Each structure stands twice: as C-alpha cells, then as structure tokens.
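As a warm-up, study this chain.
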Amino acid sequence: MRHSYRKEFYDIYTNKLLPKFIKYEKYRKKIITEVVLAEIFFLIIALGSFWISIITVMNKPEETAFKFWCFMMSLVVAGFMVFLMFASPIESDKKFRKKLKDECLSDAIACFEGLTKGYSGITNSQIASSQLFGEFNEVYLDDQFYCKYKNVEFSASEALLKYIYDSGKNRTEYNAFKGVIIRIPMKKKVNAHTIITSKGDDIVMKRNILNGFLIFLMSLLLIFMIIYAIPNRIFGEKIIFNALSLIFLVLSCLHIIRKQNKIKLNKLKLEDVSFDKRFCVQSQDQVEGRYLVTPAFMEKLNNLQMSFGTKDIKCAFFSDQIMFAISTDKNLFELGNLFVPLSNSKQINEFYNEISSIYDMIDYFKLYEKTYRHCE
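Now compare it with the structure written out below.
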C-alpha cells in the first residue's frame, strides 16, 4: 500500500504544485534578501553598541555614573539587536511556511482517498483516556486532518500539550508533549488497555512508582501514629505529630486519587528481542496484549517511526480506539521552508512519507479487524 499513491502524488506535484512552487521560489528569494539585509542592519547596530560601550568606559574616567549608564544602555541595545537577529529569520520562516501551506496543501493531499484538512475531531477527553501523557491542562492543535478510508476513520493533528499553573508573575508552564497525535477508531472493542512507549518514556510506570512511594510513606506515618498513641507520651506532642501526619495523609490520598490510573498495567515480555529493547509494552491482559502487538504491528510501528524521523513514539489500545503519539520538535506536514529552495524535493518527499505511513497503518488495521474475533 505504501506506494499506491506515489505515482498520483508526484503527477500532482509535477502538474500543480511545481508551477506554484516556481512562483513561490521568487517570493522566497525576496524574503531571504530582506532577512539578510535585516540581519546585516541588526549586526551593525549590535557591533556599534558594543563599540560605544567600550569607548564610554575608556573615556571620561571621572564621570563614573555617566559611564555606567551609557555602558548599560549600549549593552541593552546590543542584546536586543542580537535577539532580533535570531528571532527575525524564525518568524519570517513561520510566515512563509504558513503562506505556502495555505496555498498548496489542498492540492498536496488531493490524491489521498478521503483526506480533508481543517478539523480532526480529537478531543481532550480522548487524549486523557489514552493514558499516554503526563499531567496537562491545555491542548493546542494545529494542521488537523480527518479521513474516512476503506470504511476506517482516522484523525491526525500536530499537538502541543501544556501544564500551566499559577498566574501573573508566578505563572509556570511546561510542555507535556509536542508532536503529532493520530487517532483510529476501531469497530471491535478492545477489552485490555495496552500501552506501548519508547524506552525512557514509560509514563505509566513512572506514575505507578510515584504512587507506590506515596503509599509506602503513608503506611510509615500510620505506624508512627500508632506508636505515638501509646501512653506515656506528652499530650501536646502527640496532638501536633498526629495532626501533621493526618494532614500529610489526606494530601497524599487526594494526590493518589487524582493521579491514580484507572487501569493496572503489567509489563509484557515479547519474543522480538530487538523490539523489546526499544519499546516498553504494558497491558491489562497478557494474552490480548500479545494478540494486539503482533510482529506485523511492530513492523508498521517502526515504519511510522521512521517516516516521522523520531525515536520517541508511543501508542495505546483502549476501549474502541487506538491512539499514536509521535514526539518531535520539527514542524510536520510541511511542503517547504524559507531556507531550502523549493526545487529541492526532500521536503515534499517527507510530506508524502508522513501521510502515506498513516494510510499504511490504516491498511493494517483494516485487515486486523477482519481477524479480531475471539478477543471480544
């Protein structure tokens, strides 16, 4: 299947995309020229500011305060110019890629059966139910795709999951996940929640270790509370210790209730040694877990991983769906960028491989659903 759209895709590339790329190549060169001129301007201002700061320090030795403020202002201006030198190309590239995608993406996906852009239908509750991610409270989706292919639906989207707490000056945030999420509804319900993660990203195992550690501390505190309840202890001392212990126990219980997985997963040992070295497989049911993670599925997962050019990939079988999460910092589903000539076919090849690898996985699950009878 992997090459079934290739000829049609490259016919579209030759007849529709390439003429547009030729037009945008002129626009790209114009933007590059503007960026280079801006960089030269920022560099001159930055070097000039540094030079002024040096001259200021060397001259007028008696005016210490004046020298200090001139020196600081020169450094601020130079620092701001250096910031613009880095920020300007990045922002220009972002605008160029968006303009190119708005103009050409519809043509680029025209050969892929049933594929539409603009809405994926992936929801926050589905993402949370997969149990693939750490704690997050903000979801940002970009480049969303939806498809119905051979009576199998799938959704795909670039995604950024963030955890944000506090606000104002105390606002803190971190990225729980950045990459692409692919969701495939399955007509046959999966009884056992099964999770596959790259080694080093065993999110469920880390949660279980944390919860186990908290349970251990809680048990230890209960023992101490019983000991302190023994007579011949100072009454006030017992009250203070027990009160603090109870507070900690309540907070720990609330944490475990909030974080506790609704599922208990056990590590699944696979016969494929190479796959077992690179991935951690956990499932509620050892038998069904092995039925789901077949050699054919491992091969498709490897293909998906290679197509997106990342080592960090994970997926979950749960309820009536499967979800893939592919971590990467690079921009996905791109047709080109500001810093590579559009005549270079590398980016368009990557785009084709990213989309076709998803269809390759859909073909696998179409065949899989025909044989998935005895696991119901």
